[in-house]
Specification:
The protein has eight helices and eleven strands. It is an alpha/beta fold. It folds into two domains: about 120 residues, Response regulator (Rossmann fold), CATH 3.40.50; about 100 residues, Winged helix-like DNA-binding domain superfamily/Winged helix DNA-binding domain (Arc Repressor Mutant, subunit A, Orthogonal Bundle). Strands 2-1-3-4-5 form a five-stranded parallel β-sheet, with helices on both faces. A four-stranded antiparallel β-sheet has the order 6-7-8-9, covered by helices on one side. The radius of gyration is 19 Å and the shape is elongated.
Length: about 220
């Protein structure tokens, strides 16, 4: 699931990108208002997180433009301005939520997840299960046949993406865009390497095998009968 972060403070942006990526999101970060507006207009996102005070074009201007263009993507404002008047102005402009700085990452994550649930009209399941493989989106625990499996953050994000698309073949490009979040390089073998390591952890010593390679197409996690 792709998010857009428009934030010019590199330290704050790095903190947010690292946390959201570890939570399984793909985050596109831009550092000025014009680039933010270009990103909003060029591709869809699940949520846009925007600072108000930005170089070139401010956050409220971006939100106004989005709403004029009938872009209904949920918007979460981040701002050092925390007066009631500032919050009301932000919400009246068309944002969906307002989080003043400084903030705890846990609250930011909870608000992003709430906006996604609201936009979808349903709550995203917190636990993903396939056969005897289980992934808990709250505790981030993964287990198979009742035995806990320790995954690195990127391995967890990869497994979560595959399990959210269980039964569907996903290509290397799709994985790169949704898990790694950088442009696909056809020469790299990073996806194959991570898939191999993930397969060792969730399939080795277990039956049935769940993670399959579809040659020339991509990968799929499913239970074959």
């Amino acid at each position: 699931m792709r998010l857009l972060l428009i934030e010019d403070d590199i330290k704050i942006a790095s903190f947010i990108v690292k946390g959201l990526s570890a939570a399984g999101f793909a985050v596109n970060h831009v550092a000025d208002g014009d680039s933010g507006l270009d990103a909003v207009m060029s591709e869809p996102y699940a949520v846009v997180i925007v600072d108000l005070m930005l170089p070139q074009r401010d956050g409220l201007s971006i939100i106004r433009h989005m709403r004029r263009e009938k872009i209904t993507t949920p918007v979460l404002i981040l701002s050092a301005k925390d007066s009631v008047e500032d919050r009301v102005k932000g919400l009246e402009t068309g944002s969906d939520d307002y989080l003043p700085k400084p903030f705890a990452f846990a609250e930011l994550l909870a608000r992003v997840q709430a906006l996604i649930r609201r936009a979808n009209g349903t709550a995203e399941p917190t636990r993903l299960i396939l056969a005897d493989l289980s992934l808990d989106g709250v505790t981030r625990e993964v287990s198979r046949a009742g035995r806990r499996i320790d995954l690195q953050p990127l391995e967890y994000s990869l497994l979560a993406y595959l399990m959210r698309n269980a039964g569907k073949v996903v290509s290397k490009t799709m994985i790169m865009e949704n898990v790694w979040n950088y442009n696909f390089d056809p020469q790299t073998n990073v996806v194959e390497a991570r898939i191999c390591r993930l397969r060792d952890k969730i399939d080795k010593g277990y039956e049935p095998k769940l993670l399959h390679t579809v040659r020339g197409v991509g990968y799929v996690i499913r239970q074959d009968h």
